[in-house]
Amino acid sequence: MAILASSSSSLLFSSLPSNLPPPSLHLLPRSSLSLFSNSASLSSSLSISPYLFSHPTSSRRSSVSSFSVRASAAEKKKVLILNTNSGGHAIIGFYFAKELLGSGHAVTIMTVGDESSDKMKKPPFNRFSEIVSGGGKTVWGEPADVGKAVEGATFDVVLDNNGKDLDTVRPVVDWAKSSGVKQFLYISSAGIYKPTDEPPHVEGDVVKADAGHVGVEKYIAEIFNSWAIFRPQYMIGSGNNKDCEEWFFDRIVRKRPVPIPGSGMQLTNIAHVRDLSSMLTVAVENPGAASNNIFNCVSDRAVTLDGMAKLCAQAAGLPVEIVHYDPKAVGIDAKKAFPFRNMHFYSEPRAAKDILGWRGTTNLPEDLKERFDEYVKIGRDKKPMQFEIDDKILESLKVPVAV
C-alpha cells in the first residue's frame, strides 16, 4: 500500500500499480522482524525520550504501541525549506517543495548561497522554475541570516535540509523558535549509525556520539516541542546531481568492466526521492503523529552492490562485466573509487511505516529505466571520460579493457 496526498491534502491509501514487474532477485525482501507491536491504536502522538540519545542501545528492539494515521482535512501550512546548494540531499528539498505545493500548502525554498553562482546552473536548481510555476517562492541566503532572506515572513513548519553540524543549524533553530514556528523538521543522515553485527539499522540503534548530525538532533529536541528527524541514505531521482546510478551507467555503456570492492554482496539501501518527500509530507500533515520521532528516510528493501550493477545494466539493456578487488591490495582509496560504502550499510523505515502509516514506492528495476532514459537524453553516454582509478584497479587484476 502507498500513501498518496490528494489535492485536498487528505491522506488516502491506494494499491501499488498492478503492472509493476516482479521483484528482482537482486532486491532482498524486507525483514519480517518488527520494531513495533501492532496491538493498540493511540489517539495521541508517540515521542522519543531524550533518554534515547544517551542510552540508545536500550531501545533497539523495544516494543512501542503503534497507530495508523488518516488525516481527513489537513490544515494548509506555510512551509520554509532551507535547502543545501550541493550534494545528494539537494534534490530532497526540490521534490518536497513540489509535493507540498501539489497538496495546497504554501512553500518558500531558501537555497544557501547566491542565486548567480555556478551551482545554480546544475540540477535540481536549474529546475526551480517548476517550483515557482507551482506557486512557490524561491530565495537565497545564508543560514545565519534566514530571517533577512525571507524578509520577515512567518511559517508554520521549517525543514532544515542543509546543516551537518550545530554551528550551521543553531541559527536556523533559534530563529524558527523566536518567530513562532510550530514544527521543526531536520534531514540528518543514516550515516551516523555505528556499524553493527546485526543489520539493518533501525531507529534507536547506537549512533556515533561525535557525528555532527547527532549534536543537531539533540539541540532540536531540546528547543522544540514538535520536531521530527529524518535519516536518509542513498537516493535516486530526476534532478539528482550526485553520481549514484550514473557511476554504473558510465561504465556499462562504454563496455568497461565495473570494479566493485569486496565480494559485491554488501547490502545497501537506495530510495527514490519521491519516497523521501512523501514521508516528509506525511509529517507536515500529521504533526501529532510525527512529533518527537526519528525516522529512517529510506526504501524498505536492500540491494547488493553486485545487484545494483546488474539492475543498471538491465535498465540500459546491455550486458555487464563485474570484477571484484581488494582496495588495500590494489593501493587505492575505496571512497574515491566507488560511490557507496565498502561494507554492509542499510536501514529500514520501520518507524515511518508503523507510526505514520507510510509506505514506500521505490522499485529499482523501473526507477532505473527512468534514470537511464534521462542519462541518454542529456548526452552523458557520449561524453568523453577518463577512468584513471578504474584503470589502476583493472591493471592490477590483469583485466583487459576494450579500447
TrEMBL record:
It holds the Pfam family Epimerase. It comes from Rubroshorea leprosula. This is NAD-dependent epimerase/dehydratase domain-containing protein. Residues 165-296 form the NAD-dependent epimerase/dehydratase domain. One of its GO terms (biological process) is monosaccharide metabolic process. One of its GO terms (cellular component) is cytosol. GO terms for molecular function: UDP-glucose 4-epimerase activity. InterPro entries: Epimerase_deHydtase, NAD(P)-bd_dom_sf.
